[in-house]
Specification:
The complex is a heterotrimer of chains A (125), B (320) and C (840). With 320 residues, chain B is an alpha+beta fold. Chain B contains 8 helices and 10 strands. Chain B has 2 domains: 168 residues, Immunoglobulin-like, CATH 2.60.40; 86 residues, Cupredoxins -  blue copper proteins (Immunoglobulin-like, Sandwich). Chain C contains 24 helices and 4 strands. Chain C has a two-stranded antiparallel ribbon with strand order 1-2. In chain C, strands 3-4 form a two-stranded antiparallel ribbon. In chain C, strand 3 and strand 4 form a beta hairpin. The chains are: A mainly alpha (125), B alpha+beta (320), C mainly alpha (840). Chain A: Keywords: Membrane, Transmembrane, Transmembrane helix.
Chain lengths: 125, 320, 840
Amino acid sequence: MTDRGKWHERLKVTLWTLIVPPILWAGHFLFSYLWAAISCAKAGAFMTFPIVFVAGTLLALALIGLSGWIAWRQGGTPGSSAPHEDGTDIDRLRFIAKSTLLLAGLSFVGVLFTVLPVIFLRDCM
Amino acid sequence: MRRAWLCTPLLLATGGCNATQSTLDVFGAEAREIRHIAMILTVGAIVILAIVVALYVRAVRAPEGRLSHEAGMRMVLWVGAIGPAVILAALLVYALPAMRPRPTSPVDMVIRVEGEQFWWRVAYVPPGATPMLSANEVRVPVGRTVAFELTAQDVLHSFWIPGLAGKMDMIPGRTNRLVVRAEKAGRYRGVCAEFCGLSHALMAFDVIAMPADAFDAWLARDSVSIARSAGRGAALFDAQGCGGCHAIRGTSHVATIGPDLSHFGERLTVGAGILPPSVEATAAFIRAPQATKPGVRMPAYPQLSDADARMIATYLKGLR
Amino acid sequence: MSLHDQDDPAVRAAQEERLRKVWTPPKGLFLRWTDVNNNRVGVWYTLTAFCFMLFAGVLALIIRTQLAVPDNDLIGANTFNQLFTLHGSMMMFLFAVPMFEAVSIILLPQLLGARDLPFPRLSAFGYWSFLLGGVFVGGSIFFNAAPDGGWFMYPPLTTRTDLSGLGADIWMLGLSFIEVSSVAAAVELIVGVLKCRPPGMRLNLMPLYAWYILVVAVMILFAFPPLIAGDILFEMERLLNWPFFDATRGGDPLLWQHLFWIFGHPEVYIIFLPSIALFAMLVPTFSRRHLLGYPWIVLAAVGTAFLSFGLWVHHMFTTGLPKISLAFFSAASEAVAIPTGVQIFVFIATLWAGRVTWSTPLLYATGSLAIFVIGGLTGVMVAVAPFDWQAHDSYFIVAHLHYVLIGGTLMPLFAGLYYYWPLVTGKKLSDRLGRIAFWLLFIGANIAFFPMHLSGLMGMPRRVFTYPAELGLGGMNMASTIGAYLFAAGVAVICVDLCLSPHRAKSPRNPWDAGTLEWLAHPDDEDWGIRSVPLIESRYPIWDQKDFVAKVDEGRFFLADAEEGRRETIVTTVLDARPLAVIRLGEPSVKPMLTAIALGGVFILTTYHLYWAALACGVATLACALWWLWTGTAEIPEKPSKPIGHGIVLPLYIAGPAAPGWWAMFITMMADATAFSGLIFGYFFFWTRHAEFPPMAMADGPGIAWPMIALALGLASWLLTVSARQVHARGAVGLARVALMIGILASVAGIGAGLAGPWESGMDPQTHSYPAIVWTLVVWTTAHAGVAAIMQGYVLARSIAGRMDPQHDADLRNITVYMHFFALTVLVTYATIGLFPEVA
């Protein structure tokens, strides 16, 4: 597209943007696990109000939401009706945008699932 | 009642129902809770399976174009993605709190169990008292919280009493805790659940859940000194060097390489849950342990006559 | 050339003659095995994996016979333990993963309208490695020397040389060898999917099979290396007595379990997703419509790939880790069911929307889906940690995993077998025998494995060679055994069907009337793969593009000729498949086979502690590899470019990020970096396990000075190589050569400085896990410095020999990729061992 678009439109989706949401999930998951494992192994407990964890989770959710939103905006270009499966630039863009959006959804749910253990099991038993 | 209900389909299918080593036939609080979870999971799984099969059959039979692109996508979104996500989230909310172990207090009984190829070293550690050593048999008081401290010396093992609680691995260099509470007296069975070598299949133990006061009495027995009769069996035991590995309290034998034999006579099985507690089986095991338990560390005593082996076995059976 | 140039049959016949000549397979008793064409290597690969499956299946029948009745003494504990270990190991490493690679090697070029995969010789190398390693591991059972520690090989049982014999080494080294070939295949498949698609086949038009293969190959890249790292530690302990898993010397058996399952759980999806990929090909064919929800499938594949790396601890729910850690993995294990559900409903929706034509492949697909759903639901059950505490290591898990693997791998492969047999042989299999086999398999699987859910819950542990009659498990076990034999009968019927195939008549072309590119294959197959490389405008070009088949056959698309007498295929861009270049493919050669044999020698001789012979084989491997690269890669073409038709002229040489070779190096180094991160994980894992790490007695570790010198030398070598590439591209060849020469010196000096750290500090790796892991990291990094020196020397030699110049610098660009990763390795290693003790 042209340079005149908004910043989120200039940021073209590619094969790499496709894996941004799941990488965010993976980063959050690894962070959660290592944080719990290391604090349990080295300190024997972790903080009762885990501020770092809450901040990390909100950041991960925000970034996943943002990548999903960008994808949704880019995939929402007007044009022919579904299914978009032609060999055109716009349909390829729509496809990656749609896939990214779906992955953002899954990653969002994945991060929420990762939060549940911290809510229900707060210590190192 | 509950058991009979559970067993009916099994009986029909198999002609047998095992009452001593089954997660369905519970005698502990932990196992009961898990069985409850299992029931809910099973019913849920059957319902979901039925729905998927019904939709598949419907899909295959539907004429072309019965489902539009948009309707199909809606089905994938709601039935394939959002539905499962909600169900699984609910499942987690329900199941995660169940992972919490039962709280313990310093006055709770601790039982240390170590797995060895292919038997169990057991030590009862009542709060504030000296440990009482035993082997291949675990006794638990009904209605009291008991903490097992589990480890291993040689290789990995796993401590599993299906009727009491879930299993817990025994790992060299680590000590794992498993907190349980028995709810029903009786005789049960535990097994090794982590592959540990040749005779992994032959590494079991008896579990006896006793009323709490009977358990206390049983545990207190050793505090009065035990008088051990000396006889031909005891002499043979000495002469053959059995004391090089085995301990018998009240005698000069204190070795800890092999299982403690102090109360061998009251054991319900021989050879870590695999042989009947008879003099014949014990004698045969003494002469050729490898025959019934491949890979066992105990050396064979082929030079020992059958009669002598029986003498030793009789002596051991008398240790109560 | 335009569309009409191909109107003249004589022109076409001449082109066909040239193509046929170029693609003629080598003949002769020995030479035929030097072929590298994907349609031969793929078939050998598939047949070999199939034979290993039959072999492992027979082992399972012996297991089931032993367990048919309680207290059975048909076979002893020793034999039984070898049987179940080998059954699991072979099904996983010698059947499921190689089978997917084998099938992909056959199908992928067809699906992508390519003449062959980008590195045909690499496929051949992978095959010979697989055959050699597989026969070595599988054959050990005939010498009573098979591994007997379970397919998971948990130490200390398997690392203590007094408790386990040669079998453990055979497992570890034999399968490491196969892991190498799996990673090689993954490189091949990723580059194939990304770079060798036909013009116009944008990412959104790619056949779903290719999507799945891409995802799975990337998973292999990240899943296998941790196991390779584990294998290294494992063999260090067995052969050199370095105590990584020995608790008495600061090791921990759980480190192996982490590394094994970081591999082991993605592995399940590595073998499951390709089978779903087969569904994604045949469901549209038999619904007579496009697959509904293409992005959803991509979501599911990519989502599953990621989530599957967050599940490994659910194999360790009973190891006593903190409950909070278990809970994270429980949550992720539930989450992975979501993309799996999506895939199933995409198929259901497609069948619903389309017109279903019933057929044998669809019957298999339906049956396997039913079995898989049951396995998936029990998977959700065991992901609930408390339930798993009971089910873990019981027959419930045996039931669960067999439902998943039979429904998710084996039966879909049989569906694929019935579907794609005409593609490979030009003949259909019998529908009647296929149906008989299906019902035997379906009923057999359920009779064999359903009762195991109950026997597990009734207290039957796994891996027991017998069980007492009093437990009342006899009836269920007898049922399982009967079911296993029924299942085996089904497999036997399929084998009969396959054996009858040569006597049957050819089927018509595209017998299922499918819409995807691979069905261009003609029953009277030519070896050139595809007559002309088509322009793709649809996901189902045979259905949607006008006169598509005729145009391809008449050579009206691209690259319809082989004027220069070379094997060629088109390289395109990753996103939109715009043509970039024509690359020359490797021709039949004995080099891949020799390299595989030499490398096999390294692994096999090490098993028997013949270290000098193994070292000689190592040198031979290096020599073969260099010879192969020198003569077969980055060749400067006789002319800069060639026309491929329709007025398009493409270069014949390509270097840098657009080139397949660059991608191959990049991907290989991703795997290498992952293995390295496994070792680094080991270092920090030990740190969490010990209150004092490094232990007090060796608090200084390797010191700071030597590691920092080694770091400086490594980074210097990297900078020199990067500058050499820069100045070389600007034409300063002499300067580049000097930079490379100094780079070699820096690399070699880096080896000495790296080893000097732990050596000068007198760290004895046999005393404790700390010196052992430090030595391991140093050896890993200095070995990489050695490889860096060899690569720099190789490029220098290429330049001096005139095989590389500023316009043709692929070699230099490729080793620069290596050097980037090398710099990272050097940085992490020396910072960790030199500086971390200061802050810990």
